[in-house]
Every structure is written in structure tokens, then in C-alpha cells.
Design a protein that fits this description.
The chain is an alpha/beta fold. It has 24 helices and 22 strands. Among the domains are: 169 residues, Nucleic acid-binding proteins (OB fold (Dihydrolipoamide Acetyltransferase, E2P)), CATH 2.40.50; 154 residues, 3-Layer(aba) Sandwich (Rossmann fold); 159 residues, P-loop containing nucleotide triphosphate hydrolases (Rossmann fold), CATH 3.40.50.300. It has a seven-stranded mixed beta sheet with strand order 6-7-4-3-2-5-8. Strands 12-13-11-14-15-10-16 form a seven-stranded parallel beta sheet, with helices on both faces. It binds adenosine-5'-diphosphate and magnesium ion (MG). Magnesium ion binds next to helix 12.
């Protein structure tokens, strides 16, 4: 299996180089695991008079009766008249037809295959694959014709689908190539999986739909199984290796707060998560937990309760937010929640003064301070804790790996780490990319929330939208108006924002209306001042860029207007919408857009109008963009699955994960006889363990 592809019959140095460069195929094994991305039923033929009237791929039997050349803007195109007895159509070549012309035989039966192109009621097929019927009949007999991923370069260099298929046929028939089984027999039996050898044959040369499905299922299971096995193994080993502080006590600080200061009853989900965290903190191993909870689901209180347990055990905590505004918000929340508890906490951001810092450093090092809230400023070397026991990181995706790693260096025993995120990542994906973290989910919102009504309006409805803004303000509510700010075109976006601000100022003049404006080009002092005015209800409208995307909490705000909403990604739209609906009033989100929308843009806006569920929205996002483009996952490498699909095969992923989990629980060293095959397979996997370190 590890034999270089160069030595396969029909390859040679040139092809071997191309296969390596274009498809990353280096060995026999790589070629066998180069899977078709789809199949075509080649037992079916279409007739020309009954072609489907969309642009699908079809196979037709017929003859070419004549060939013409038609002048076009640049050069000529070659057009063949093709008939099958029911009608006629055109086959068209725009390039590369000189040599082809010489091989085409008129009035002989061909099987052609290609994608129909409809133009003014006429069907044609550009650049069809074609084969004389006599040769087609001699071809490998398969029910389905595999289509492999390819590239322009490969096609230009003559490595066509046919060539790939032939290489695979010769490899599958070659003597001495061992198809060793990679799964224990009892798993094959339990999940009714076919053998590796059979699966590889069937996936490349399916003899029936049923066997093809079983081959795919077997290979997908295997792929998920080994992916999950490695992730869980890594987590298991980390837990064995990395010691953590033991916070066994739930003491008076926690109790006092819980009994006398908690402003509401915890939701079931919050209780469950606090329990999971308490468990982790007591084990003597470092906690490394991801807390997922939709915007407004109440993560802050969970963070606070975790910090109180830390205090009860004589340690300090830090709560880190990605922006200054958010850090300030957290600080204010703590001011309210911790009033009268005597717990000492402080705020450290980039704009803390020298004097403030001096006092703070001292109190932190002496242990006087129990909680430090801040931005990445807390990662600076000057900032020394007396004994940091817990680091909570809010909105994880804004932080780099390096910053997190710094926390570790501050102590011999690393602090427990809780990463909180409101970016709803579908569970399937979370299990895969964060497989070496434990995951907690807050999946219910606090009671009494009215779901936000979302509307989509075009720019030419702005007057009506402004009338609605007035209505809301007259009811005493506050309004966000958000503009996109996308880095590459910052100047342009900035102009949009300022133009918008001007027109809003004209429609909502003082003294009846007061407006705050916040954007990235402002000094952080000015930003805070403007935010403050909005938070305190002195202004009714906040015009802003996405600075306010995460975390800001103004319960009296009931209307979110998102300008150029088509330019935002789904998860960003959902985050922004989460700024309203935080109080008891009915809240609204209005998505403004131009009248020209791309299909994808339309789907995004429709999804927002239809759904308030972050996880559902994340699934759509994942489908639209593919897992590789989701935030932070590019670096994971893990999503380059060869055959399995994280979304479509979610059930199988779960089965594979559960199985892997059970095996590691019972036999982490793979010492059982039946697990030898796993041990052997794992040792051969090319696995870059570094990629998993990117969370903690
Ligand atoms: P997020 O998860 O987005 O950080 P927050 O922690 O800011 O959410 O909570 C959102 C709002 O819900 C806050 O005003 C908070 O006080 C309130 N809240 C949180 N938990 C509950 C609860 N169990 N019952 C009622 N209100 C709650
Ligand atoms: Mg929050």
C-alpha cells in the first residue's frame, strides 16, 4: 500500500508528478482512498426528444451526421449535428477540437455524455465525453460510473476520468496489494459493515446501488471512527498528564451569593452546566471546557458562579473579553451582581491609567484581588497573579492561540480554562473540531423571553422603517442601527456609515432625539462615552459598526436595524440580532438590503426571518459555506474528510464517536486481542497532533 504511485502500471514520472501536485496522491494507498465525489447511472440513456429541461448531465446514444465551424468573437467553435432517431441536437467545442476532428467518425453509433445547455429552447452539450458504442460496450461493466474530483490542469494534461478509472482498475486487480482490515471484527458484525477490501472495490466499481451504499457507509464509519478515536485519545491523555488545582469546596462565598444575591432562578440548562464545571474543578485535572450558549442564554452567571467556587478554594480568577466595551460590560454586570458581597474585583484594559495599573498589579500579586476582568491586557507579562486558578475566556474566536498559551506560563499548575462562545457551532462540527475539549451547552433561554420578530425590507422602504423607529422610541424603547465594516473596503464602508448617520440625524433631530455613534476609528474613550450614554438611556439611537456585535447588554433596546444586511454572514447577523430581545418588550430586527440579491444572500436573509434558533442557523451557514470556511476551522485541517460529511452523515459520526469513546474507556492502550488492528492502524496514520492544540 505504501508503494509509490510511480510504480503503478500506466503512471510513469510525468503522471506521478501531476497526481502528487494536483491531487496529493503519492502512494497506492492514496489512490485507493481517492474517492469519487459522485456517480452517474450509465445504464440509462436519454432520448433527444425527451431531454429534461434543466441543465443536468445526460447520456445519449446516437450518430454524428455533420460537422461545421462557426466564427465567434475569438476564433471559431466546432459544432457537430447529433441525432438519435427521436430528434437532433448540437455538440459544441470551443477549443481543442483540431485533433478531435480527426478522430470523429460520421454516421457511427456513439455514446455521449455531458451537461445539457439550454439556449432559446435549443439543447446543446458543450465538450461532451464520447465513445464509440462498440468500445463503450467493452468497457468495465459497472452500474454506476464514478466521477472523481479533477482539475483543469489534469484534464489539459490528458488525465481524464477514464485514465483515473483505468489506474484504479489496474491497482485493484494487481496481485500482492494487501487490503488489510482496519476495524475489529466485532464492530463489523455489530454495525453490519462490509470488509475494507470489498468496500474499496465497490466504491470505485459499484456493482449495485445497494453495495455502493454499504461501501460508502463502511468507509465513512472508518473515517469518522479514526478521527474521533484520535481526538478522544488526545483528550484522555491530556487529562492523565495535566494536573489541575483541586477545587473540592463549595464554600461560603458561593453559598452566600447563591442564597442572598442571585437575582433570578437558574434555568435547568444553567444548573446542569454549573454542575459539569463543578465536577471538572474537583477532579485534580485541568479543566478545559467549551461553554456554548446562544446569545442571551445567560453565560455570564455561569462564569460568575465558577469564579465564586474558585474564590472559595483560595484562588483568583480572570474573565477576559475580546473588546474593551465588552470587558467594561462584564465589569458593570459584576458590580451589580456582587454588590454587598465584599468580593474584590477590578477591570484592566488598554486604557487603564498607569496609576490604576500600579494599584491593580499590587493587589493582584498580594492576592487582595479575587477577580480580574479585562481585555487581552491581562495577558501582559507585567500582570502577575498571586495564584490564578481559573481563566474564563468570553467569545473565544476573537483570541489567538498565543494569547491563551500565555496564561499557562503564569503558573506551574495551569489554571482551569473555560471558553465561552455564543457562536453557535452545530454539535456535529463542535464534536469534531473541539474534540479534545469537553463541551457544555446552554440550550434554553431564560424564561419569559419573547422571540424577536425579524423582517426583511428593501432600501426603498426606508421611510416606513424610520416611521417604525419613531414609534418604538415614543414607546420609550431604544434602537440600534448597524452598518457593515469590512476591513478591505474600510474607507468605503466608513463613508456609508457617515452618510447613514447624517440622514438619521436629519430624520431624528434634537432635542427630541439623541443619537450615539460608535465605530472603530474613534478613540476608545470617546467610544466608551457614547456607549455609556446609550446604555444609560440618554440617547435613543445607537448608530454603530459591528463593534457592538458581541455581548453588549441593553435590555431596553427593542429594535435592531441592520443596514446592507446581505453583506453580513449568518452567524454575524444572528449575533447582532441577539442585542435585542433582552428585556420583556416585544423586540424587532429589520434587515435592510438593496433589491439585487445573490441566491446565497437571499437564503441568508430568509433564514434569519424564519428562525431564531442559533443552532439551526449555524446548520444553514455550514451548508452554505462548507465547514472549511467557518470561523477558525481552516486551521484545523480536520475538516478535510475524504468521504464522510459532517452534516449529512451526522448519525454515523455519533455512532463512530460513541464507539471510539467506549473503546478508550475500556481499553485505552488497545491491549485486547481484538483491538490489535486498531493499534496497528493508528500507528500508521499520518497525524499532525499540533493542530489540536489551538484551543488551550
Ligand atoms: P450571554 O449568554 O449572551 O452572555 P447574559 O449572561 O448576558 O447572556 O444574559 C442575558 C440576560 O439574561 C442578562 O440580562 C441576564 O441577567 C439574564 N438572565 C440570565 N440568566 C437568567 C435566568 N436564569 N433567569 C432570568 N434572567 C436571566
Ligand atoms: Mg455574554
Amino acid at each position: 500500500m505504501q508503494t509509490e504511485i510511480l510504480y503503478l502500471k500506466g503512471v510513469g514520472p510525468e503522471r506521478s508528478r501531476l497526481l502528487k501536485e494536483e491531487l496529493n496522491i503519492k502512494t497506492f494507498q492514496d489512490l485507493l482512498h481517492f474517492f469519487p465525489n459522485r456517480y452517474i447511472d450509465r445504464s440509462r440513456f436519454h432520448s433527444i426528444n425527451k431531454l429534461p429541461n434543466n441543465n443536468v448531465e445526460v447520456q445519449i446514444k446516437g450518430i454524428i451526421t455533420s460537422i461545421n465551424y462557426i466564427n465567434q468573437k475569438r476564433g471559431k467553435r466546432m459544432v457537430a449535428n447529433f441525432q438519435d432517431g427521436t430528434g437532433s441536437m448540437q455538440l459544441v467545442w470551443f477549443r481543442g477540437y483540431q485533433w478531435l476532428r480527426e478522430t470523429i467518425r460520421l454516421n457511427q453509433a456513439y455514446v455521449i455524455f455531458g451537461r445539457i445547455n439550454w439556449f432559446k429552447g435549443q439543447a446543446s452539450i458543450p465538450h461532451p465525453e464520447m465513445e464509440l458504442e462498440s468500445i463503450f460496450q467493452q468497457g468495465v461493466k459497472v452500474a454506476f460510473y464514478p466521477i472523481y474530483p479533477s482539475s483543469e490542469k489534469l484534464i489539459n494534461k490528458g488525465i481524464s476520468q477514464r485514465v483515473i478509472q483505468k489506474l484504479l482498475a489496474s491497482l485493484l486487480q494487481q496481485k500482492g496489494v494487501e487490503f488489510s482490515e482496519t476495524l475489529p471484527n466485532y464492530l463489523l458484525d455489530h454495525f453490519k459493515l462490509i470488509s475494507k477490501e470489498k468496500a474499496l472495490h465497490q466504491v470505485h466499481y459499484p456493482s449495485s446501488q445497494n453495495l455502493l451504499s454499504r461501501a460508502q457507509m463502511r468507509l465513512k464509519f472508518e473515517e469518522f471512527f479514526y478521527m474521533q478515536l484520535q481526538l478522544i485519545l488526545k483528550n484522555h491523555q491530556r487529562k492523565q498528564k495535566i494536573k489541575g488545582h483541586v477545587f473540592a469546596e463549595v464554600g461560603s462565598v458561593f453559598r452566600n451569593f447563591f442564597d442572598n444575591h442571585l437575582p433570578f432562578t437558574l434555568t435547568k440548562a444553567q444548573k446542569r452546566v454549573v454542575k459539569e464545571i463543578r465536577n471538572d474543578l474537583g477532579t485534580g485535572r485541568q479543566m478545559n471546557r467549551l461553554l456554548q450558549g446562544d446569545v442571551g442564554s445567560g453565560k455570564t452567571i455561569v462564569a460568575l458562579l465558577s469564579m465564586l467556587i474558585t474564590i472559595d478554594n483560595g484562588f483568583q480568577s480572570t474573565l477576559v473579553a475580546p473588546t474593551e466595551i465588552l470587558a467594561q460590560q462584564h465589569f458593570h454586570s459584576l458590580e451589580i451582581l456582587l454588590k454587598g458581597t465584599g468580593i474584590k474585583f477590578a477591570l484592566l484594559t488598554g486604557s487603564s491609567s498607569k496609576k490604576e495599573r500600579m494599584v491593580l498589579h499590587e493587589h493582584l500579586e498580594s492576592g487582595k484581588l479575587s477577580i480580574l476582568v479585562g481585555t487581552h491586557a491581562v495577558f501582559e507579562d507585567k500582570v502577575k497573579f498571586s495564584n490564578l486558578g481559573l481563566a474564563i475566556i468570553d467569545e473565544q474566536h476573537r483570541f489567538g492561540v498565543a494569547q491563551r498559551a500565555k496564561l499557562w506560563k503564569k503558573n506551574n499548575i495551569p489554571p482551569h480554562v473555560l471558553v465561552m462562545t455564543a457562536t453557535p457551532i452545530p454539535r456535529t462540527l463542535a464534536m469534531s473540531i473541539y474534540g479534545d475539549l469537553d463541551i457544555s451547552v446552554i440550550d434554553t433561554l431564560p424564561p419569559g423571553r419573547k422571540s424577536i420578530k425579524t423582517l426583511h425590507r428593501f432600501d426603498n422602504n426606508r421611510l416606513a422603517v424610520f416611521a417604525f423607529v419613531k414609534e418604538q422610541i415614543n414607546l420609550g424603547r431604544q434602537v440600534y442601527i448597524v452598518y457593515p465594516l469590512i476591513q478591505e473596503s474600510e474607507t468605503f464602508d466608513y463613508k456609508d456609515l457617515m452618510d447613514g448617520y447624517e440622514s438619521i440625524s436629519r430624520s431624528f433631530p434634537p432635542p427630541n432625539y439623541q443619537i450615539s455613534i460608535v465605530h472603530g476609528k474613534m478613540k476608545s474613550k470617546d467610544k466608551s462615552y457614547e456607549m455609556e450614554r446609550f446604555i444609560n438611556g440618554k440617547t435613543q439611537i445607537l448608530v454603530a459598526t459591528t463593534v457592538i456585535e458581541v455581548g453588549v447588554n441593553v435590555p431596553n433596546a427593542s429594535l435592531m436595524i441592520i443596514e446592507s444586511a446581505e453583506r453580513f454572514g449568518l452567524s454575524q447577523l444572528h449575533q447582532l440580532r441577539g442585542r435585542v430581545g433582552r428585556g420583556t418588550d416585544q423586540s424587532y430586527c429589520i434587515l435592510m438590503s438593496g433589491s439585487k440579491l445573490s441566491e446565497e444572500g437571499k437564503t441568508r436573509l430568509q433564514t434569519m426571518v424564519k428562525s431564531n434558533d442559533g443552532f439551526e442557523i449555524a446548520e444553514v451557514d455550514l451548508r452554505l459555506r462548507g465547514p472549511g470556511n467557518l470561523m477558525g476551522t481552516q486551521q484545523s485541517g480536520i475538516l478535510q474528510l475524504k468521504i464522510a460529511d459532517l452534516i449529512k452523515d451526522a448519525e454515523l459520526l455519533k455512532a463512530a464517536r460513541d464507539t471510539a469513546y467506549q473503546i478508550i474507556k475500556n481499553d485505552a492502550g488497545f491491549n485486547n486481542n481484538e483491538h490489535q488492528v486498531i493499534k496497528h492502524t493508528l500507528s500508521k496514520l499520518r497525524f499532525d497532533s499540533n493542530i489540536w492544540n489551538f484551543i488551550s
